[in-house]
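Summary of Year 1 activities. Much of the first year was spent building the evaluation harness for sequence design. The harness presents a backbone, in tokenized form, and records the residue chosen at every position. We chose the following record to illustrate the format because it has been used consistently in internal testing since the harness was completed.
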């Protein structure tokens, strides 16, 4: 497995894991209270910050445990990354219609912010999955 592919796996696992923990925290805080009244900003910011740190530490850890033969990106890696980012960006653009619609409908900030966060996670999921499929089957 190439260095770049390992990085995609780490990014995917960290993105989904931190978002899952964030949802568990928010739903746990609800406990009979309407979701829009739950204090979501600190957990969201912590989740994003932890995700960034965990992605860095995770990638370093994976390289220590199972080093790659080369850390150089070849043209295939660059093409796969470009294609995955292109598809992930398209998914992000479509997913951002939900928070835009919520803003136009003057929904609570809770719903708008969470729809935006979900759009970012969906983009990471789609882009990473496209890259992983491309690494296994080619472009």
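For this record, the design step produced the sequence shown next.
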């Amino acid at each position: 497995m190439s260095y770049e592919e390992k990085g995609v796996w780490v990014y995917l696992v960290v993105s989904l894991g931190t978002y899952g923990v964030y949802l568990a925290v928010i739903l746990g805080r609800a406990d009979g209270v309407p979701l829009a009244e739950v204090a979501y900003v600190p957990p969201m910011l912590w989740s994003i910050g932890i995700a960034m740190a965990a992605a860095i530490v995770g990638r370093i850890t994976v390289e220590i445990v199972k080093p790659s033969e080369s850390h150089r990106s070849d043209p295939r890696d660059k093409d796969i990354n470009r294609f995955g980012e292109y598809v992930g960006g398209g998914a992000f653009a479509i997913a951002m219609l939900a928070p835009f619609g919520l803003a136009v409908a003057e929904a609570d900030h809770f719903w708008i912010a969470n729809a935006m966060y979900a759009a970012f996670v969906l983009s990471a999921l789609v882009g990473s999955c496209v890259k992983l499929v491309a690494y296994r089957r080619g472009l």
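The mean pLDDT is 92. Quantitative recovery figures across the full test set are reported in Table 2.
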